[in-house]
């Protein structure tokens, strides 16, 4: 019987399984949801303080928007960190010397979007993800257009 280790092929993946599937689209989708929730929060108008029913509805809506924004910003950060730490390798860093700084700043923007209500930081996050999208697809020698679903 042959030793099963004789023909081991190294594989790379975004998780502990060898699927090898990576795409910054998952980070884009999560960040875009956080952008949407940020805009919705900023567009809310509080009701009159003496209208208890309207205030309850407002607080309920606001808290839901906040929860979704924070969840999606955290998910975007997770997706970016997986891409950064699992997909990108030293040869990519040689080709893109600002790679670590680009990802670090994008992760910091995810945190800012999570804890703030800033349309500016939300749009900066989308711009950072667009830059990462370009770098990622360039490493695969593919020209994939960046788009927004919303």
Give a concise summary:
By secondary structure, the chain is mostly helical. It contains five helices and no strands. Helix 1 packs antiparallel against helix 5 and helix 4 runs antiparallel to helix 5.
Structural class: mainly alpha
Counting H and I runs of at least 4 residues, what is the number of helices? 5
CATH topology: Four Helix Bundle (Hemerythrin (Met), subunit A)
How many domains? The number is: 1
Number of distinct beta strands: 0
N-to-C SSE string, H for helix and E for strand: HHHHH
Through-space gap between termini: 57 Å
- CATH architecture classification name: Up-down Bundle
Largest sheet: none
Spans of at least 5 consecutive residues whose pLDDT stays below 50 are none
Beta-strand fraction estimate? under 5%
**The CATH C-level class name:** Mainly Alpha
Find the CATH superfamily.
Answer: Nickel-containing superoxide dismutase
The value of Rg in angstroms is: 20 Å
Gross morphology? elongated
What is the arithmetic mean of pLDDT? 91
- Overall helicity: 55-70%
Description:
The chain has helices at 25-43, 52-87, 90-95, 99-115, 119-139. The termini are far apart. It is built from 5 helices and no strands.
Output the keywords.
150 residues; mainly alpha; Four Helix Bundle (Hemerythrin (Met), subunit A); 66% helix; elongated
Write the layout of secondary structure elements.
Elements: H1 25-43, H2 52-87, H3 90-95, H4 99-115, H5 119-139
Helix pairs in contact: 1-2, 1-5, 2-4, 4-5
């Amino acid at each position: 019987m042959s030793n099963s280790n004789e023909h081991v092929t190294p594989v790379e993946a975004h998780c502990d399984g060898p699927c090898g599937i990576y795409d910054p689209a998952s980070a884009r989708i999560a960040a875009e949801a956080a952008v949407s929730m940020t805009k919705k929060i900023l567009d809310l108008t509080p009701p009159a303080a003496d209208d208890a029913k309207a205030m309850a509805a407002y607080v309920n809506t606001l808290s839901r928007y906040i929860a979704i924004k924070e969840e999606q910003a955290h998910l975007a950060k997770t997706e970016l960190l997986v891409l950064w730490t699992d997909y990108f390798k030293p040869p990519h860093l040689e080709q893109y010397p600002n790679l670590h700084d680009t990802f670090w700043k994008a992760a910091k923007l995810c945190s800012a979007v999570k804890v703030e209500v800033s349309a500016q930081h939300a749009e900066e996050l989308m711009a950072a993800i667009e830059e990462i999208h370009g770098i990622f697809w360039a490493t695969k020698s593919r020209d994939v257009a960046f788009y927004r679903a919303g």
